[in-house]
Amino acid sequence: MPGFGFGKKKQAAGPKGLKVEHRIGVQAPPDVLWENLADPAAWPEWNPLYSRAEGRLAIGAPLSLTLTLPEQAPREVRAQIVDWVPNEQIHWRTSVAGGFGTAIRYIEIEQVADHACILSNGEWFLGLLGPRSAKRIQRPLRRGFAAMGEALKERAEAAWRARA
Questions:
Q1: CB atoms inside a 10 Å sphere around CB 29
Q2: From CA 70, how far away is CA 135, in angstroms rounded?
Q3: Residue 97 and residue 133: Cα distance in Å, rounded?
Q4: Which H helix or E strand runs over 144?
Q5: Which of 37, 58, 128, 138 has the fewest Cβ atoms within 10 Å of its own Cβ atom?
Q6: Cα separations (Å) of 119 from 10, 57, 62, 88, 124?
Q7: Residue 98: CB partners within 8 Å, gap ≥ 6?
Q8: Domain-by-domain residue ranges, the chain?
Q9: CA-CA distance, 71 to 48, in Å (whole number)?
Q10: pTM of the predicted structure, to 2 decimals
Q11: Tell me: the pLDDT tens digits for 9-61?
Q12: What digits encode the pLDDT tens for the residues 93-108?
């Protein structure tokens, strides 16, 4: 019956919130990207988004980061690793909006060919005030993710070419 929702396909359920993401193709295998991601303390050497990073990749481990977004003052971020799979992904969680929201930050590598992958770099903002707090920084955050993606792409592709 029209107007009552009958006959409509159900949408896939997923997190409700605001997602900010940048994706980029990289002409290098996942393990070459991973070499740059596996040691957070080395991120500031190449990563314009994090001018400081301390911690290790282990589920439940803390991360201490200095987030450096375009046109904004750097700010300290305390996070906890919630998932990681070598050569595939890192996910960490932070509290936002004074604890009334959660942000899940992710870096994911999807292999699409023997020597090519897609790097997804983004953040989900969830909870009562998570999406609202994200709207304030959505544009600079997307630019920061793009800068990080471009820097990792450049570094990984150069390393891969040097090996060939």
A1: 18
A2: 15
A3: 6
A4: helix 130-163
A5: 58
A6: 30, 18, 23, 9, 16
A7: 129
A8: 19-163
A9: 13
A10: 0.87
A11: 444 445 678 899 999 999 999 999 999 999 999 999 999 999 999 999 999 99
A12: 998 877 778 999 999 9
In terms of Cβ atoms closer than 10 Å to its own Cβ (0-12, 13-18, 19+), residue 46 is middle
Q: Give, in order, the Cα–Cα distances in Å from 122 to each of 15, 41, 77, 108, 113.
A: 14, 20, 15, 9, 22
Burial group, residue 146, by CB count within 10 angstroms (0-12, 13-18, 19+): middle
d(CA 35, CA 162) in angstroms, rounded, equals 14
- Euclidean distance between CA atoms 98 and 101, whole angstroms: 7
HSE-CB for 95 with a 13 A CA cutoff:
5
Q: Compare 138 and 11 and report the one with higher pLDDT.
A: 138
3-state helix, strand, coil in the chain (%, to 5): 30, 40, 30
